[in-house]
Amino acid sequence: MHAGTINVNDFKTGVTIEIDQQPYRVLEFLHVKPGKGAAFVRTKLRNLLSNSNQEKTFRGGETVGLADVQRREAQFTYVDGEEFVFMDQDTYEETRLARDDWAKFLKEGAICSLLFYSGKV
Fold first, then answer.
1. Cβ–Cβ under 8 Å, residues 24 and 50
2. Within 13 Å of residue 47, how many CA atoms lie on the same side as its CB?
3. Angle CA(54)–CA(31)–CA(46) in degrees, nearest 5?
4. Which residues contact 4 (CB under 8 A, 6 or more apart)?
5. Per-residue DSSP letters for 7-67?
6. What pLDDT does 50 receive?
7. Could you report the per-residue pLDDT of 30-80, keeping only the tens digit for each?
8. Pick from 32, 66, 95, 109: CA 20 to 30 A from residue 120's CA?
């Protein structure tokens, strides 16, 4: 799901784009204008779902989709079996997440930043 498009010439560090239905954050970018041939933009991207980094080169003037990514503050309230329950600080809605590696760092009442992509955490 696209939230719009962006020209690769307008990339800035921190912009979140969508490639092959995956959200990526632009970590670094470099506009290259060789003496011969067309200009291009070399980027370093982080996949927000797998947390892996990759380098990708785009043709100058190419457009890509912006990813529908939202960050929301939530309070870790309690554990329900294998699920961790968070409460949105603004709407008081509950979000449940399965236990994962991050679970060992949580303490009850901690305020966390949840990243939502297309309605999923």
1. no
2. 12
3. 20
4. 65, 66
5. EGGG--TT-EEEETTEEEEEEEEEEE--SSS--EEEEEEEETTT--EEEEEEETT-EEEEE
6. 87
7. 999 988 889 999 999 999 988 899 999 999 999 999 998 888 999 999 998
8. 109
